[in-house]
Amino acid sequence: MMRHILLFASTLILGACASEPTDALPEGITACPDERPQVCTMIYAPVCALTEEGERKTFASDCVACGDEAVIGFETGGPCPE
């Protein structure tokens, strides 16, 4: 019984780590997780996010960026260049 529980738990954990394929994303862009965040901390760590339309937009953090359904990924290192 314990073996089945461990197998189920490990399958669940590994499945949670899977995300969309990153082949279509430009190099340096981290894909947003399938399950979008509902609440984010107020830590300001700006990122440059990439939207589905190919537009780049600055967000206060990676969490805030991925909370927007139009965002497909982000790159860390500060805001988007002007």
Search tags:
82 residues; alpha+beta
What's a concise summary of this model?
This protein is an alpha+beta fold.
Shape assignment: globular
Number of domains: 1
What is the residue-averaged pLDDT? 81
Strand content: 15-25%
SSE class: alpha+beta
Terminus-to-terminus distance: 58 Å
Radius of gyration: 16 Å
List the helices and strands in order.
HEEEHE
Instruction: Specify the biggest β-sheet.
Output: 4 strands, antiparallel
Task: Give the strand order of the largest sheet, numbering strands 1, 2, ... along the chain.
Answer: 1-4-2-3
- Number of DSSP helices? 2
Per DSSP E runs of 2 or more residues, the count of β-strands stands at 4
Helix % is 25-40%
Low-confidence stretches: 4-22
